[in-house]
Specification:
Helix 3 packs parallel to helix 6. Helices cover 32% and strands 18% of the residues. The chain has a five-stranded mixed β-sheet, with no helix packed on it. Strands 1-2 form a two-stranded antiparallel ribbon. It contains six helices and seven strands, in the order αβββααβαβαββα. The protein has helices at 2-22, 81-85, 87-97, 118-125, 136-141, 170-178, and strands at 52-54, 60-62, 71-76, 103-108, 130-133, 150-154, 160-165. By secondary structure, the protein is an alpha/beta fold. It has a single domain, classed as Glutaredoxin (3-Layer(aba) Sandwich), CATH 3.40.30.10.
Length: 187
Amino acid sequence: MISLMKYRSVLVLIILAVFSITVPVGCGSSESSSKKPEADLSAQDNIPERFNLKNIYGKRYQWSQFAGKPLIINFWATWCGPCRAEIPAMKKLYSEFHPQGLEIVAISLDQKRTIEQVVPFIDKYQIPWVVLYADQKTVDEFSLGASIPETIFFDANGNETARLIGAQPESRFRREIEKLFPPQAVK
């Protein structure tokens, strides 16, 4: 009887361990697998605006300002532990790939009670990329699920190439970023 209970306990622990390794950690309860139609940015004169948001200083940024560049959009919040956990990897990769044209736009999902924490958060973590405040239209446009961080990768033509939900290791981000560049452009 005891050996059967030990066997079951060990089996449950193994299943939990495998589950925790294979499922990314994020804040929230579900993920979205739906994708919006891709926005081809190759026709520069007719670029659909997928966002038009203010940054932390009130300056407005639009989707079209990033036309022709590989782009990562990261949806996050100051209260999200997994969002904080992935910042060092993103900073390292940004410093490596930004000189080649990569842009990152972080869109904060902080609400009224935490929005005043965004600027100190950016200062504390020394975030070098553009940080914008989300609105419901943008959340709907990108078909966000209920979990963050949610990181979306776009090639230079504005086509979504990957969507990662939950904190990711540097190697996973790197793999997706390298797909955004022609082989000769990657160091």
